[in-house]
Amino acid sequence: MTRKVPTEVGGRELTLSNLEKVLYPRDGFTKGAVVDYYRRVAPVLLPHVRDRPVTRKRCPDGVEGRAFFEKNAPAHTPGWVRTVNLPTPGSAKGRASADFVLVDGPATLVWLANLAALELHVPQWRVGPRGKVHHPDLMVFDLDPGEPATIVEACRVACALRDLLAEDGLTAHPKTSGKKGLHVYVPVRETKRTHAYARRAALRLEDAEPDLVISRMERRLRREKVFVDWSQNNPAKTTVAPYSLRVAPRPTVSTPVTWDEVESCTSPQDLVFDAETVLERIDRHGDLLAPLLREAPRLP
After folding, report:
1. pTM over 0.85
2. Neighbours of 88 (CB within 10 A)
């Protein structure tokens, strides 16, 4: 029998269910713990996803069960959840468009957590109040180490990328992917040129560090190197949101980190953070990615 628990979040009445269900068996981390994490992390997470259509990775039977990505809002979506209809070219389901959820408050965040939407993925652009798609205001580089390279090598590449971007007057901010890699974000004034610029920057980095960096997509080229994935700046693509849980053996989180932590990383375990650790870090540091939310410079 499904146990249902009524609750109020952000002035909205929600009914939560199966809170005792274990979603991360290795740690015994339950759906209730997932809901609690997203409720507590909401103050710092929400500004980074607000007005960005969210693609969810859901695991109703836990991380060891079937996982699937979901773009369209479910049929039972509450009327108070904000959605926006956007084109979905190349959709695997043959849809011309989908009603994307916009997470604009803690109630929507908890509602998604109750659906076992463990991961939240967003684009680098926002939509306006009437659904107009704006140009990107963020640029992101996904640093993906190819075995036997690890996040330690990705940290070296991140520092080199930071310095390269600084030469162009841009400020970079790191976070872990929550798995094996690192993400480097750059806030910019709205522009449609982020994809082209990111590609050129990745090529420049590869030219400067050919033994460590690869900017091409072919997997056969990635062994022992760090792939600088600039393609996530394509407007059709998304990146896991800051503070999102990951579908992984443990409840790890895509976690903002300091450049001191990146520079001093000597072991992959140095930059592994679970949900409870992230909440403790927020108490100490606040939102390390808060600069992404401020007015940013133009791309050169």
Report:
1. yes
2. 17
